[in-house]
Each structure stands twice: as structure tokens, then as C-alpha cells.
Specification:
Residues 16-311 form the NADP-dependent oxidoreductase domain. This is NADP-dependent oxidoreductase domain-containing protein. InterPro entries: AKR_Detox_Biosynth, NAD(P)_OxRdtase_dom_sf, NADP_OxRdtase_dom. The chain is α/β, with parallel strands linked by helices and 321 residues long. It has a single domain, classed as NADP-dependent oxidoreductase domain (TIM Barrel, Alpha-Beta Barrel), CATH 3.20.20. Helix content is 38%, strand content 17%. It is built from eleven helices and twelve strands. The protein has helices spanning 30-42, 58-69, 97-111, 129-141, 155-167, 192-198, 234-237, 243-259, 263-272, 287-294, 303-312, and strands at residues 4-6, 13-15, 18-20, 47-49, 77-82, 84-87, 90-93, 116-121, 145-151, 174-180, 202-206, 281-282. It has an eight-stranded parallel beta sheet, with helices on one face. A two-stranded antiparallel ribbon has the order 1-2. Strand 8, helix 4 and strand 9 (145-151) form a beta-alpha-beta unit. Helix 1 runs parallel beside helix 10, helix 2 runs parallel beside helix 3 and helix 5 packs parallel to helix 6 (192-198). The protein is globular, with a radius of gyration of 19 Å.
């Protein structure tokens, strides 16, 4: 069973792995989503991360139905977002107070709940930061959200937002940040992770398996059923199909073969137990994929393997000191 971890210095406690829903509505249908949540919760998971943009509202609506038919609302920590959407082929970011609170109202309606456990600004926008954060104060102050966080903010943006909330008593503190982090994407270690640590915030890495590349499935080409083969997601995978990434994948596969672990499990363990990480978000599309990842409960990578993977992907993680 999964252990629980505190989110920063807040009172929010979540499972050490989270379930992401970005592919719900595109690669995951409602029945499959229900099976994923049932498997996740039965293994001690409670953190489910979603957003209005995922499937154009499908992910939230489906999760709402799942909480009525499959698992109890009380078993789930819902993390959703606001301020980002897809309209036709274009993506829009609107972090104005009106847009954020409209998104929140829509999320509550689709999820069929009266509150969000963790409400997050999905991306840095053009609206004044103080206006966006005032929406957070309103949401938490009125009970529509219990805690607040940010997503895809770089280092200075993270600190600016956290400091603004700390500047005046009564403002709602930010408890978490979310950004990409894996053996193929360690940029968060430069500024984002130190900022989160300084402000005592939790960290939810998305795409801990390097957008699926660290599974090893792309070693001999692009499988037909993979994200890389889909017109709407090939752009997401392509940056990690270069020579450097292939070398990292081979190192991960070699480590796994000596530890009786799959490449996916090696990559996930490295992220899960990295300094400052609260809970990596899993984008599994099938129960079989998810079960293999959940099987890392109670397992750890030997320190020499961690150091070797650090070295092959850019050097020692300075936060390990």
C-alpha cells in the first residue's frame, strides 16, 4: 500500500503517487477511467489531478460520475486547475479573476462536489498576479477550495506568487507547485525546486516517465498505440526521441535489469524519492500500466544506482546534499 505524504508545511496529506487524467477523453474512455480509479484507490492512492482543459471537461465530468458510482468522494483528494483552455485548435491562457472563478464554478458543477481539495492556477498568464491570487483568496475564503497551488510556473514566478501571498496576513498560502520533472527533464532542479523548498511548498511532478519515453517503448520505433503515433500528441513525445534521450533510456533499462524492475519502475522510483517531491502524477492509460507502476510501493533504488542515473542525466542533484 502507498504511503502518505504531507504537502509542504500544510495540513493536506496525499498518497505518494497521484493519478493524472490528461488523456481522459482522448485515449481513455469513461469505463477505463473508472477501472483506473478503482485500481488506484484500492492500492491506497487518493490524489487525482485533473483540469477543465482535459478532454474539454470530459475528465472532470467522468471523475464526478466515478465518485458517484465507483468510489466515495471522501476517498479522493481532488486537484484541479483554472486559467487554461483549448478552443478549437488554439490554446488560451486567461488568469483574470473572472476567468479563474468561472473555471472553478464549472469544475464544481462537472465534478458534482461543493469543494475542490487543491485548486491550482494552471499557467502563468497576462493578468496582474495580484488579481489572479485574489481569486485564490476568494475561492478558499468561501469554501469552494480548501488549498491552493500553482502549475507550470518557473522559479521567479513561483517565488513572486508565494511571497505575494505571504506579504499580508490573511492571504491564502500556496501549498504546492506542479511542473514537468523526470530523468529526461531535470530543469526544475535549477530554480523551481529550490523555490518550492524555500517557501515550504509541496511538489507534484508531471510526466515522471519522460512523456512515456522512459518506458522503453520507443527504443525500436514508435508503437501504433502510443502517444507518439497520435496526431494530437506526437508533438508532446518528439522532443525526447533524440540521441541523448536514447542513451538515458538504455541506462534506465540496464539499471532495471539488475534490480528486477521495469524501466518504468526505475524512472518512477528516481522521481518519487528525489528531494522535495511530494507525489509524481501518473498518466497511465490502462489498468495494466497502472498496476505495474503501483507495484513500486515499498521499493527503493540503491544509492549507487541513483547516483549513476544522476550522472548520466546531467550530474548530481544539488538538493541531495
Amino acid at each position: 500500500m502507498m504511503r502518505k505524504r504531507q504537502v509542504g508545511n500544510s495540513g493536506l496529506v496525499v498518497s505518494e503517487l497521484g493519478l493524472g487524467t490528461m488523456t481522459w477523453g482522448s485515449s481513455v474512455d469513461a469505463d477505463e477511467a473508472g477501472d483506473l480509479v478503482a485500481e488506484f484507490v484500492s492500492n491506497g492512492g487518493n490524489l487525482i489531478d485533473t483540469a477543465p482543459a482535459y478532454g474539454g471537461g470530459f475528465a472532470e465530468q467522468t471523475l464526478g460520475q466515478i465518485m458517484r458510482d465507483v468510489v466515495s468522494r471522501d476517498d479522493i483528494v481532488i486537484a484541479t486547475k483554472a486559467g487554461f483552455g483549448t478552443h478549437g485548435t488554439s490554446q488560451t491562457i486567461d488568469t483574470s479573476r473572472r476567468a479563474l472563478l468561472d473555471d472553478l464554478a464549472g469544475s464544481l458543477r462537472r465534478l458534482g462536489t461543493d469543494h475542490i481539495d487543491l485548486w491550482q492556477i494552471h499557467a502563468w498568464g497576462d493578468a496582474p498576479l495580484e488579481e489572479s491570487l485574489a481569486a485564490i483568496d476568494h475561492a478558499v475564503g468561501t469554501g469552494m477550495a480548501l488549498y491552493a497551488g500553482i502549475c507550470n510556473f518557473i522559479g521567479w514566478q513561483t517565488s513572486a506568487a508565494a511571497m505575494w501571498q505571504k506579504a499580508v496576513p490573511g492571504r491564502v498560502p500556496l501549498v504546492s507547485g506542479q511542473i514537468e520533472y523526470s530523468l529526461l527533464a531535470r530543469r526544475a532542479e535549477i530554480e523551481v525546486l529550490p523555490a518550492l523548498r524555500y517557501h515550504q511548498m509541496g511538489f507534484f511532478p508531471w510526466s515522471p516517465l519522460g512523456r512515456g519515453v522512459l518506458t522503453g517503448k520507443y527504443s525500436n520505433g514508435t508503437p501504433r498505440d502510443s502517444r507518439g503515433a497520435k496526431d494530437n500528441l506526437s508533438w508532446f513525445v518528439e522532443p525526447y526521441l533524440d540521441q541523448r534521450s536514447r542513451a538515458v533510456v538504455e541506462a534506465v533499462k540496464k539499471a532495471g535489469s539488475g534490480l528486477d524492475l521495469t524501466p518504468s519502475q526505475v524512472a518512477l522510483l528516481w522521481v518519487r524519492d528525489a528531494p522535495g517531491v511530494t507525489a509524481p502524477l501518473l498518466g497511465a492509460r490502462t489498468v495494466e500500466q497502472l498496476s505495474g507502476l503501483l507495484d513500486v510501493a515499498g521499493k527503493t533504488l540503491p544509492e549507487p544506482i541513483v547516483s549513476a542515473l544522476d550522472d548520466v542525466t546531467g550530474g548530481q542533484n544539488q538538493l541531495r546534499k
